[in-house]
Amino acid sequence: MAESSADRWFLLFNRIFVTLLLIGIAYPLIYVISASISDPAEVNSGRMWLWPLDITWEGYARVFRNGEIWLGYRNTVFYTLVGTFLNLLVTIPCAYALTRAEIKGRNLVMAYFVLTMFFNGGLIPTFLVVKSLGMVDTVWALLIPNLVAVWNMIVTRTFFQSNIPRELEEAAEMDGCSPARLLIQLVLPLAKPVIAVMALFYGVAHWNQYFAALIYLSNRDLFPLQMFLREILVLNQMSDVMMMNGTDMEAMARQAQIADIIKYAVMIVSALPLLAVYPFIQRFFVKGILIGSIKG
């Protein structure tokens, strides 16, 4: 079919909009990467606006020189892997159970779950509950309180309802398949896309969490990576304030420049693992989003 004039203008507008959107998203990322390996003087003077100039690795050297960074990486990998596994272990059976018509009161249970998305006890009651359970200053304080995200459970439930034929389940039940075996051997292999999406959602949340650690943890051996990176940024800011009382202006300016590239290096160190993983599960991510938006 021949395109009308209105169609051509519409396509042109879309291409321009998508191009501008791509530039708006890509430029800050490229700038941060370039600034993290450029000479601080070039960055602060504005001469470095896209590609790196006078490449230096001093920012990364200072970040990784801190041994606690590696401790934080180890802890964060543990929290991400174990936490994501526990999240999926609870979310998937819960979502599947809420699709079973023979379970009485499932709509009431679903309404209760949805209610918790809008109302919660608040920070202090939550802390008191965690403390009463003896989880303060333990790894469980970062894993148990947020074991299930209601929105993720809703998306998973919608996937089961939309993509797992009830007739297939009934045929398996007629052959003597138990509910647990049905879930493990039939439903889960068909639910790989939504499992990948949920793993991404939960994994990103665990990787980026620092507020729960700030509230519940005091033992530095349990700190996640984000806590140590936060300390690096805070200490650099404090150093900037303390240097204001100094007399060596040239040293003060150089230290301030180093602090700036350390901040850029910290951004890359914390985000790089997620940027490396995301392309491999992007297609599942898009599919999961569409499922939740269409029938959630």
SSE topology:
Elements: H1 5-36, H2 40-45, H3 58-64, H4 67-97, H5 106-118, H6 123-132, H7 140-143, H8 150-163, H9 166-174, H10 179-190, H11 192-208, H12 211-216, H13 225-243, H14 249-277, H15 282-295
Helix pairs in contact: 1-14, 3-14, 4-8, 4-11, 4-13, 8-11, 8-15, 11-15, 13-14
Characterise the protein shown here.
By secondary structure, this protein is mostly helical. It folds into 2 domains: 56 residues; 229 residues, Orthogonal Bundle (MetI-like fold), CATH 1.10.3720.10. Helices cover 75% and strands 0% of the residues. It is globular, with a radius of gyration of 25 Å.
Key attributes of the depicted protein:
mainly alpha, 15 helices
A few lines on this structure:
With about 300 residues, this protein is an all-alpha fold. Helix content is about 75%, strand content about 0%.
Strand content: under 5%
Please write the CATH class name of the largest domain.
Answer: Mainly Alpha
| Count of separate structural domains | 2
Number of strands: 0
